[in-house]
Amino acid sequence: MKVTLIDYGAGNVPSVERALRRLGADVKTSNIPEEIENAESLILPGVGHCAALIHSLDAHGLRAPLRAAILRGIPFLGICLGLQALYASSEEAPEVPGLGLVEGKVTRLPEKVKLPHMGWNQLKPLKDSRLLHGVSPDGFFYFAHSYAAPVGATETVAACDYGRPFAAVLERGSLFAVQFHPEKSGAPGAQVLANFLKVTA
Fold first, then answer.
1. 80 noted as active-site residue
2. Choosing from 50, 80, 160, 171, which is the catalytic residue?
């Protein structure tokens, strides 16, 4: 199955593409609405500011086709901001509505810790997870963010703690998302991407 990587101008698109190709994936990058809506599977990477991601999706006319594909059950993986964009809103850009596919609001991490949360951290599994299958519970993942989603959503299958607990892995049917960067997380990150590719097969 072909994986369509949504290329809206994020800096980590090439590194995600390389990580997927190393796993033998058939990868296509696109920012064309028709190709997004009709994709066999989708990955939305993200770095930077939430508003920039959403504005870029809207500028390319990708919001509606992306929502349509996800709601139709196309396998989807959001990475970092790609996770946060699934929510209705974010404190980082309160004037910009998100995709509204997951309940809750993305909020800033506490000022009592150094921001951004940048570096390696571990996960706390909360439920069985297809994305984390075969990943060592001692594995570390690379994070780079100052805002995070709440743990309370039913989609949260793993959390992380940095100043407060936050959602690190979401799963609901064929919708998946991770707050960390699997393409920068060594063997554990590669396993997460491989598990997503198995879902799409």
1. yes
2. 80
